[in-house]
Each structure stands twice: as structure tokens, then as C-alpha cells.
Design goal:
Two copies of one chain form a homodimer.
Chain A lengths: L8 H4 L3 E5 L9 H9 L3 E5 L5 E2 L2 E2 L13 E4 L6 H10 L4 E4 L10 H16 L3 E3 L5 E4 L4 E2 L14 E5 L2 H13 L4 E6 L8 H9 L6 E6 L5 H10 L4 E5 L4 H11 L6 H10 L3 E4 L2 H13 L7 E6 L2 H14 L2 E2 L4 H9 L11 E2 L4 H14 L5 E6 L3 H7 L3 H15 L3 E5 L3 H10 L7 E2 L2 H21 L1
Parallel strand pairs in A: 1-2, 1-5, 5-6, 6-7, 10-11, 10-12, 12-13, 13-14, 15-16, 15-17, 15-18, 18-19, 19-20
Antiparallel strand pairs in A: 3-4, 8-9, 8-11
Helix pairs in contact in A: 6-7, 10-17, 11-17, 12-13, 13-15
Chain lengths: 465, 465
């Protein structure tokens, strides 16, 4: 059933769109309808009982629209979905996104049955269907979205794409990530996946020039063997979050999207064997790691140097380095000598490099010495400066960012910044970071796990060559 | 050497203060000096070469000050510290906080030796010393601080106190926590601890009426047996973060505060046997958990009910419930029937309760039914609503908070909110939460670990009675 990936382009860049069930009332779909009608995407509202929606002429049925529709978004109540789909097929629509919930996930026989009928239609009709029980897609490079996310708050298109099952989550993830300056290429949620699923989307994103890193949130897997096949073929890093590790979680999935989780241990074992597939524990970890993959070069080894203004956070990160399977870089004597020239006598210049409050003045020579040291394969900069001195010294941060960017490019070694401090501090650093392509996060364990996965990914790549 | 805990009050509420090494230049201590001189705390700047500091008359030596000084804060360079201490002793100062770094932690013989001399002085003189290599204390109930934290940004005094070794960290933790609406009672950092240490401070905080929860960041332990003794006696929950789990971390501590970490596995085993002592992995976990202890009643059992708008996040949390050793509460039939009355047909009313986008309308009946169910001992509310609808519906959140507060008080069951969403969403909820005494965090694993520790703490309390 797999089709050429380009054939799904109409979901991401449709020439014409119909919103079936469009309405002005403050409920699910309100923001999307308002946004699409006012956007440059040719959008037609379909509503059985309204003349106008947000001032635009509404059509009773999709067949009343005087133009051929490529993509239909369905948000009518669950009992009316089947009829809407049949209308779409009659009108030769290429793709449907069914956002309405209330099908197999309810466990109610009547709605399970409707979902089966939709599945049958998808198999026989010349149409592709995303959903039901989802929020569809967002394309961050042309600002097309079928979600309730507001585009004026979003970043420009980035290099990370996300494939997720859940609807609400699809919206919120994008929302959250935007406020963390995690820039996406494409996001896709497919809910109960009667047709389009993670396999189609992995294939699509593998060929998508905008996507450098794929993040995949999995609940149930319907075609396990096919999933493994495609995961083997994908050459981009795939960061997977899969729930259902516990019996309770397993049951919860069933009542959420109506799919069967499968034995989690089997998937865990399979993921471990797949080169380029990395399993994570939660969404925060997922995007922090994706951000490192998206912005930093792959490290040539496992030796990490730590620079910080807080010896405590430095030594806590050392514990994590060992747990995660990296090494604390043994610095060359010349590196330490180099750093000593510019540092007060009380700074600790073994690795981790604790610059203390002198960090504003001594960061530049310290980072330069570390990046020049061939024993160092990656640098973790743990930023821990109280808000007050930072407000005073904040202008010194731009040269630091510029320096990091320059040295990363020159030496092809990854640098990650972890921030421990006030919201003001984090916001200040986040705001500036995208310009310099620097991944900023709060947790050192995420940064170090990311560096370890990057190292493993590089090892796999090289074995392939 | 232990003294009556009240005898350390002069550190937290000094009648008179001298800042030895006070200066107007933009370096360590600038913010503190400026703040204390302008505060209601009677503060005298001491500087060998300046006439005035921030417009206030400066004294060449502490003995020149025309008033008896209770507390001296030393921020002169490391080579001048010993002389400053001797001056303080001559002037009958009660307590000294040495913030200057550059002693045993450098590993340089000369500075290690100076620290030894300070230690000897502390043993014989009638004086208590905090430091060196620290930022001293903050009392959030009278706004006295010896740190560079800015008080106008801080919250009112709360119920959590922190004892930490590291200086920079002491500043930043308070900074960070304030911006997360984590309200502190007292914070203490003691760096290389030549005299005052975690044992003194645990004793002090056990008797401090403002402190309900103690958080303890430990690097090296010098008096292991005494620490264990006091930890056994403390009746308040103590949340411990200790580094040095790895060899690399162990070595890093040595070069940070010059103390010996001790065998981590022994401490791990000891902590596990100590009732009321809970070990955590990082600062984020530490304060999220402290926040639950500080605001919520102890649960009567291990059964957790989850309410959410995202079935995915709900099922991920189910996996964590099992891992952490809690139960997913088996709801009574009547509870489910009660919730059904007010919910659309597509919501999933098994536990986890997935209210989907109907959460604004159906939260009230759902939470009320759950709190009334004796099978439910605690509730986790995973808030996952995109920013856009939330902005529209945000006013519905205040009644939700009010309801939570009312039901927590009535049923004495803890409720914790985990937020997944944009920074705007988190900020909005955080801003309102303190008024209603609701712990808000981003990570469900922290919330669940906190509930588990609260359950264990209650079990210990009850065994004692």
C-alpha cells in the first residue's frame, strides 16, 4: 500500500482546502479555521447551516464548492464523519484529515464499527486519509497548518520533524517547542491511523530535504515488521518515544487511540539493534536531543570537556558522563597551561573547568584552549550565573555565542549549553541562541545523552561507508 | 562542638553587619554590598583605601567602626582573609561569613595551609565561621542576604529551606527557584566549611518554625557519623542531592570545595535506611518534590488518579506510576458514572481520565468525582492545552485552581499539576498557583516521585506514633 513519498505532498502544500464542519463557535478547530480562511491557502468553509463563517461564504456540502478541492479537513461530530468522507470521495478529493475524535478509542461498538468502515473506504478509494482523532499536519516552511497552533508565535522552519499519534499532543508539542526555540520542519499527527501511518511518514520525511532529524512518538504499532524495515532504511537519526512500558500504560493506550501497544520489551530490543534509532524517556529529552542533532556536528570521540561557573553542577555532570557512557576528557598539559595564563589563581582548571564568577572574562581563552585540544571531542558549557550579574554583563554573552559558533564550525566539535538559572536568564540565552545555531537546554543529562547518541550515530555512519 | 541552634540566629538576623572588602567595582559582592547598605540592616563597609562606598562612609578596619559588629562578611582577596579574621576576633564579632574563594579547593599548598589556620582559629576563638568559598545565607522572611541575589525579584518567604555547599549554586538555585515560584524560608551555603556545616544547619532548621521541608545538597561529608545521627533525629522531610556517584565526579568535588566525597555507595545505603531522608538525582527534581511536600497533605495510600487533556501524556505517566512504585487508582463504578453525566461521549473515563479538549468544561465534575472516591489517594493533573485556546479560556483556570484548593483542604488528598505547553502557558499557571497553594511543575516523573516519597514519609510518621 506504500506510495511514492512525494505523493503525500498535497497534505503539506495543498492547492485548495475545504474545512468540513467549519464554525465560528469557540471550540476545537476555531483557531485553525480562522487562520486558514485568512491565510494565502485557498480555503473554503463547509457548514450545513451557516451562510458565512468569519465573513467568508460557507458551502453546504463540499460538492457545492466551485473549485476542485485537494485536501479536506473534517471536524464534524463523529456521527457525521462517514457521510462527509463519502462526499469527499465523490468530489475527487486527494486527501482527507479527519480530526474528529470518538471512534475505536471509545471502546463503544458503534464507533469502533464506523472506524472499520472508514478503514475499508481508505483501502478501496483513490484517496489518502490521516486520522481520525488527530490534528493533522503543520508545515513550518510554508506556514500551512491544520492545527490550532498560532503561526505568528512560531519560529521559522527548522530541521526537526515530528511524527506523533496523539492529537492534543501534536498541538502542544509544537507550542512548547516553539517557546523553547526548537525549530521544526514538519509535524504530523495521525491519531487512530486508518490509513496514513508512521511508516508512510518515515518514508516521506526520509526524502524531505527540510528534515534533518526525525522524532517519532509511538503508541500502538499495527505493522511491526514494516516499521522495522523502514527504520532500517532511514538514513536520518530517528529519536523514538514509545509508551506502554507498563501494564497500566499499555491499557491506557488502548483507550486512547484504540490501538494495541504490542510487547514493549520486544520493541525495546528491536530499537536497540536498529542503527540510527534512539529511544528516549520523555518529550523534553526527545527535543533537547533532537536540537543537538539538528545544530551540532557529530563528535569524533567520547571525550567531553565541561566548562562552568559552578563546580557543583560540573561535578554532578561528571557523574552523568560516566553513567551515560562518555568520558571526561583528559586534557593535555599545554591546554591547562594555556588556560592558566588568563585565569585567577583560584579557578579549577582540571576538567571540569570551574571558572567561577570569572566566567565572563575567562570563557574565551578557556573554550579556545579546549577546542584546540585533540583530546576533547565535545564541550558542555554549564551556564550558572545569577540573574543580577548577568543583566549587567549580558552583552558579553553575544561574543561568547559568536565564539562558540566560530569554533564549532572550525573544529567540527559539538558544543551544548545547559542553563541553570532564572527564567530571565534562560529566556535571554534562548532568544539569542538560534542565530548562532547553539542548542540550549536546562538538563545536563539530556545534553550528555544527546552527545552519546551523536557519537553512536557517527560510528554507525562510518561503518556503513 | 555543637551549639544551641538558636545561637546561630545572628547569621540570619544580625543587628549589625560589616562588609570587609566592600567595593563599588562590578565584581563579586557588588550587588550584595549595594543591597545591604541601602537596606534596613545596619551595615558598615570596610575598605582599606576608599573613603566612601556607594555614598556611605567606609572604614579602614573593622575596629574603626564606632559600633559593636555582630556579623562580618569577608570578600577580600584570599591572601588577606586571615588578617581580616584576626581583626574580627579582636572586635568580638559573633559570626563571620568568608565568601572569598581560593583555599583548599585549589590544591595549592599555600592556600590549603591558610585554610588550616582558619580552621584552628574557628576551634579556639569564641566565634562561628561560615565558608570560605561560599555565598553565605539568605533569610526570606526578613529579606536579609549575603548573596548577590536581588530581593525585589524574590517571593515572600516560603516553607522550603536549602543547605548547600557551593557558592555560585547557592545564588543561582535561589534565583531559579524564585522564577519557578518555589518559595524559600532560608538558604545556607558554606563552601569549604571550616566550622559551620550541614550538621549545625540541620539542627538549626529542625527548630526553625519557618522551615517545613529541608533540601540538602551535599558534596563531601567530613563527619559522617554525626551527619547520620542528626538525620535520624530530624522530624522534617530532608531531600538530599549528593554527587560523587562516579569516579570522575568524586575527583571533581575534591578540586571544587577541597573535601573528600566518601564512598557514595555507603551513603546511598545509609540514606535509604534513614526515615524521612529522600535522595534525588538533580536540582529540578529536588525542588519539584520539595514543593509538593511544602504545599500538599500527605496521601493516605498509593493510588493515583490522572486527569489530562492528552491521552498520550496520560499513558506515559502510567508507565512512570508503575516504575516508581505507585498504583493507578482503580476507580469505583459510581465515580465513572458520575463523570459520564457531564462528559461528551468520546472522552475516556477510565483512569487515566482523558478529557481531551473538553477539559475546560468537564474538569470540575471529574475532579470532584475523583476526590470523592475513597480508592483515590492522590490526583495528578497533566495540563496540556495549546496556548491559543488557553488564552481564550484562561479565565476558567482560576475557578479550577480554587476548586483544587477547596477539595485538597476538604479531602486531605494531594493534587499536583504538571504542565506541558508553551512558556506562556507555564508562566500563566505559575503566576496564579501560589495563591492557591498548588505545586506546578513540568515533569510527571517528579510529581509521581514526590507523591511516592510523601506516602513513604506518612508511613514512617505513623509507625513512630
Amino acid at each position: 500500500m506504500s506510495v511514492k513519498s512525494n505523493s503525500l505532498d498535497f497534505f503539506f502544500n495543498p492547492k485548495t482546502v475545504a474545512i468540513i464542519g467549519a464554525s465560528e463557535s469557540l471550540k476545537f478547530g476555531y483557531t485553525m479555521t480562522n487562520y486558514l480562511l485568512k491565510s494565502s491557502f485557498k480555503t473554503y468553509p463547509v457548514n450545513i447551516s451557516k451562510e458565512k463563517i468569519f465573513g467568508y461564504k460557507a458551502y453546504k456540502r463540499i460538492s457545492d464548492i466551485p473549485e476542485q478541492i485537494e485536501l479536506a479537513i473534517i471536524i464534524v461530530p463523529n456521527e457525521n464523519v462517514l457521510e462527509a468522507i463519502k462526499d469527499c470521495i465523490k468530489s475527487n478529493v486527494k486527501g482527507i484529515i479527519i480530526e474528529t475524535a470518538g471512534f475505536a478509542e471509545t471502546g463503544i461498538e458503534k464507533y469502533v464499527q464506523i472506524q472499520h468502515e472508514i478503514e475499508e473506504i481508505a483501502k478501496t478509494a483513490n484517496i489518502r486519509i490521516i486520522g481520525p482523532n488527530c490534528v493533522g499536519i503543520t508545515n513550518f516552511n510554508n506556514n500551512f497548518t491544520t492545527t490550532d497552533v498560532e503561526f505568528d508565535k512560531l519560529l521559522e522552519g527548522g530541521k526537526i520533524s515530528i511524527i506523533a499519534q496523539s492529537g492534543v499532543l501534536g498541538n502542544v508539542v509544537v507550542d512548547w517547542a516553539s517557546s523553547q526555540k526548537v525549530a521544526f520542519a514538519k509535524s504530523i499527527t495521525f491519531g487512530n491511523k486508518v490509513d496514513v501511518d508512521e511508516i508512510d511518514m518515515l518514508e516521506y520525511l526520509e526524502n524531505d530535504p527540510y528534515t534533518k532529524v526525525i522524532t517519532l512518538y509511538l503508541e500502538g504499532v499495527k505493522k511491526g515488521r514494516k516499521l522495522i524495515e523502514i527504520l532500517k532504511r532511514v538514513t536520518k537519526p530517528v529519536i523514538v518515544l514509545k509508551n506502554g512500558r507498563s501494564k497500566a500504560g499499555f491499557n491506557a493506550i488502548k483507550s486512547h487511540t484504540g490501538s494495541i501497544a504490542g510487547d514493549d520489551k520486544i520493541y525495546d530490543a528491536i530499537f536497540k539493534q536498529l542503527p540510527g534509532v534512539f529511544r528516549v524517556d520523555n518529550f523534553y529529552e526527545m527535543f533537547d536531543i533532537a536540537q543537538i542533532f539538528a545544530t551540532q556536528p557529530l563528535p569524533n570521540g567520547k571525550n567531553v570537556a565541561i566548562i562552568t561557573a559552578s563546580g557543583s553542577l560540573g561535578s554532578l555532570a561528571c557523574d552523568q558522563i560516566e553513567q551515560i557512557g562518555l568520558n571526561l576528557a583528559p586534557l593535555k598539559k599545554s591546554t591547562i597551561e594555556q588556560m592558566k595564563k588568563d585565569s585567577p589563581n583560584w579557578t579549577s582548571l582540571r576538567n571540569p573547568i570551574d571558572l567561577g564568577p570569572s566566567v565572563f572574562a575567562t570563557f574565551k581563552p578557556a573554550l579556545t584552549a579546549l577546542m584546540n585540544d585533540e583530546n576533547v571531542h565535545a564541550v558542555l558549557y554549564i551556564f550558572a550565573v545569577p540573574q543580577k550579574p548577568l543583566e549587567t554583563f549580558s552583552l558579553t554573552m553575544i561574543p561568547q555565542f559568536r565564539l562558540i559558533n566560530k569554533l564549532v564550525t572550525k573544529f567540527k566539535k559539538p558544543v551544548t549549553i545547559c542553563v541553570f538559572g532564572s527564567r530571565w536568564t534562560l529566556d535571554y540565552l534562548l532568544e539569542e541562541s538560534p542565530k548562532y545555531n547553539i542548542p540550549i537546554m536546562t538538563r545536563t543529562d539530556h545534553a550528555l545523552k544527546g552527545l552519546k547518541m551523536m557519537y553512536d550515530f557517527k560510528a554507525i555512519k562510518e561503518r556503513k561507508i
